[in-house]
Each structure stands twice: as structure tokens, then as C-alpha cells.
Automatic annotation (TrEMBL), chain A:
Keywords: Membrane, Transmembrane, Transmembrane helix. This is Uncharacterized protein. It comes from Candidatus Falkowbacteria bacterium GW2011_GWE1_38_31. It comes from the Bacteria. The chain crosses the membrane at residues 84-104, 124-145.
From TrEMBL, chain B:
This is Transcriptional regulator, PadR-like protein family. InterPro entries: Metal_resp_DNA-bind_regulator (IPR052509), Tscrpt_reg_PadR_N (IPR005149), WH-like_DNA-bd_sf (IPR036388), WH_DNA-bd_sf (IPR036390). Gene3D superfamilies: Winged helix-like DNA-binding domain superfamily/Winged helix DNA-binding domain (1.10.10.10). Coiled coil: none annotated. It comes from Candidatus Falkowbacteria bacterium GW2011_GWE1_38_31. Residues 18-91 form the Transcription regulator PadR N-terminal domain. It comes from the Bacteria.
């Protein structure tokens, strides 16, 4: 495969999987036409060409991913890769909750939300909330995103 | 026709230009990009990502449909698109809306240019 097509194919991996399956071949063909036409007209393909391509593809991929995100349904969430990401994100909840409580502790009104001191004093509690759960969360998120967006093929 | 104008919100510029490009003939991706550039006097250069994002939504909305794979002018096989009957109605309605707007703009411009200066 030609270098420019190889690079462009990698860019297309930023799009949602379904979009890639439907339009990848066509987009590669259109890009090849655009590339060859620019080469014919200008005699070279410069940095401005690649800048435009890069900006357009990144912006397009962001829009498509947002559209895709809006279509998330329970059935979609239950797909294996989405489930892994969801579990990963849920593991961050305790640390988010702890931070939230820490902020609220400055206000007496929310004192009832405080984590009881005996529990908070346990080292295992703090370690699991601050280190273990987020680390497992990061691993789950990474695995899920890799599976969902085929990152192993991108890098 | 008026029913279509009121029923559907104004189209985005890219969608309108894609419909306009497909109004006269079936076209493939790069052909659409070239036609849009030509129609807009090179003011509107649509990238691949923007084009296929719009094509996806237009297919979902039944404004366009695939017209099969054919040989393009460069001798390579490309996938072509064409307007659906619904797409034609939408394009006509949108064109009508633009013409009405252009008439209002022109009229207002005339009035603005010939209006006597206001005294504060």
C-alpha cells in the first residue's frame, strides 16, 4: 500500500467502528483521487495539504464519535467492549466521591456526608480508594478503548 | 412545496451543496467535492471527513441513495450517489426558501440604500 494511503487509513481508525465499516473504502478512494489530483495540479503534495486533511479528519472523527455517543442505548452498553469501559469508569467513582466529600467537608451543612473516621482511618480503605481502584479502572478503560477502536492496529 | 418548506428545517450549507451537486447527475465522492468547489466559486472546499459525515446523515434521512459502482473519468471504479425523490423535494423546497430570502434581502437592501438619513 502507498505511504499516503497507509497513513490515511490509520487516520480513519479514529472514526467509530460502524462508520469505518461503511465508508472506509470509499473514503480511501476519494482521498486517493484528491491526492493524485493535487499532485497533478501542483506537482507536489505540501504541508498545507496534510494540515487540511488532518484537521478535517480529526474534526470529522470528533463529530462522528459525539453522534455515536448520543446513540448509546442499554443494548449498546451491554456490548463487551462498552461494558469493560463502563466498569473501568465505575471504578473511578469512589475516588470521585471521596474528592467530592473532601470539598463538602468544608461546609458544616454537609457534615452528615462525612465518611466515618474509623473507616477512613483504615489504611486499606484509603489505599484501595486512592490507588488500587483507579489503577484497575485505568486498565479496564484502556482494554475497552483498545478493543473498541482497534488501537493496537493504529499504533 | 410550501408544506416541505415549513416541515423541514433549513439544511446545513454542506448538505445543501451536496444535494445541489447531485441535482443534475449521479456523482462519486471526489466528483461531489469538485462540484461543490465549482458551485461556490472555490469558496467552499469540503474535506473528506465533512463530506462523508454529511453523506451518512443524508443516507439516514433518505435524501440520497447509492447509485452503484461505476467507472469514473480516471478509469477507476467508484461508488456513485444520486438524489432520492424525497431529496429532490427537499432540494426544491430549500431552493425556494433561498430565493424567497434573496428577494427579501434585495428588497431590504434597496430600502436601506434609498432611505433618508434618520435625525437623532
Amino acid at each position: 500500500m502507498k505511504k499516503h494511503l497507509f497513513f490515511y487509513k490509520r487516520l480513519l481508525r479514529l472514526y467509530p467502528k460502524k462508520f469505518q465499516d461503511t465508508f472506509q473504502k470509499e473514503m480511501l478512494d476519494t482521498f486517493e483521487d484528491y491526492y493524485q489530483n493535487t499532485l497533478k495540479e501542483k506537482g507536489k503534495v505540501d504541508v498545507i495539504f496534510w494540515k487540511q486533511v488532518l484537521l478535517d479528519e480529526v474534526w470529522g472523527a470528533i463529530q462522528e464519535n459525539i453522534n455515536n455517543f448520543n446513540k448509546i442505548t442499554i443494548a449498546n452498553i451491554m456490548k463487551k467492549e462498552n461494558k469493560i469501559i463502563l466498569i473501568g469508569l465505575l471504578l473511578f467513582l469512589p475516588i470521585a466521591f471521596t474528592l467530592f466529600i473532601t470539598i463538602l467537608e468544608h461546609f458544616e451543612t454537609f457534615a452528615f456526608l462525612r465518611i466515618p473516621t474509623p473507616i477512613y482511618d483504615y489504611a486499606w480503605f484509603r489505599i484501595s480508594i486512592l490507588y488500587i481502584l483507579p489503577i484497575i479502572g485505568i486498565i479496564f478503560c484502556t482494554l475497552g478503548v483498545r478493543k473498541k477502536y482497534s488501537f493496537k492496529k493504529l499504533i | 412545496m410550501n408544506n416541505y418548506i415549513t416541515k423541514f428545517p433549513p439544511l446545513t450549507p454542506v448538505v445543501f451543496h451536496v444535494l445541489l451537486a447531485l441535482a443534475t447527475s449521479e456523482r462519486h465522492g471526489y466528483d461531489i467535492i469538485k462540484q461543490i468547489a465549482l458551485d461556490s466559486n472555490q469558496k467552499m472546499i469540503v474535506g473528506n471527513g465533512t463530506l462523508y459525515g454529511s453523506i451518512k446523515r443524508m443516507l439516514d434521512d433518505n435524501l440520497i441513495e447509492p447509485a452503484g459502482e461505476k467507472m469514473a473519468e480516471n478509469g477507476l471504479i467508484r461508488k456513485y450517489y444520486k438524489l432520492t425523490s424525497h431529496g429532490k423535494k427537499i432540494l426544491n423546497a430549500e431552493t425556494e426558501r433561498y430565493l424567497q430570502l434573496a428577494f427579501i434581502i434585495k428588497e431590504r437592501q434597496n430600502r436601506f440604500n434609498h432611505a433618508s438619513p434618520q435625525i437623532a
